Amino acid sequence: MHTGSPRLGRPSMGSWVTYGLGTENNNLPGFVVLTSGGNAPDAGKSVWGSGFLPTVYQGVQCRSEGDPVLFIKDPDGVSRDMRKASIEAINDVNKLSYKEFKDPRR
Q1: Which residues contact 75 (CB under 8 A, 6 or more apart)?
Q2: Cα distances (angstroms) measured from residue 23 to each of 8, 32, 73
Q3: How many Cα atoms sit within 13 Å of 23 on the Cβ side?
Q4: What would the pLDDT profile of 56-78 be if each residue is shown by its tens digit?
Q5: What 3-state class would DSSP assign to 61?
Q6: CA–CA dist 61, 53 (Å, integer)
Q7: What is the pTM of this model?
């Protein structure tokens, strides 16, 4: 129903739409997923996954309890400055990797 195929691992309809049409904001997910009553589908999160498309086209689940989107808040015991420094260090490593391999996904 979500992917148009009975086999798991195919891109969801939302992934195809985002892939084909793009998004109006590069800082937000292309589409969000709202589950009914907090219940996940039997196939799990793969039903709104990006399949073989790049992960940028995957949906993001909004939850009705707790944090609406996971991993947005700073973890317990980690200050905002420490998290920012960690993200900047990862970005620096990614930039070095890109300079060496010229492949943005490597």
Answers
A1: 83
A2: 25, 12, 24
A3: 17
A4: 888 888 887 788 888 888 888 99
A5: strand
A6: 18
A7: 0.60
CA distance 99 to 35: 41
3-class state of residue 33 by DSSP? strand
Return the residue matching tokens 């907090």.
Answer: 38
Element housing 98 (H / E): helix 80-101
| Token pair of 56 as six digits | 């940028």
| Continuous segment of H or E residues that includes residue 38 | none
- With 70 as the cut, is the pLDDT of residue 89 above it? yes
- Taking alpha carbons only, the member of 103, 15, 97, 4 closest to residue 56 is 15
CA 71/CA 68 separation, integer angstroms: 10
Q: What is the pLDDT of residues 12-60, one digit of tens each?
A: 888 888 888 887 777 777 788 877 766 777 777 777 888 888 888 888 8
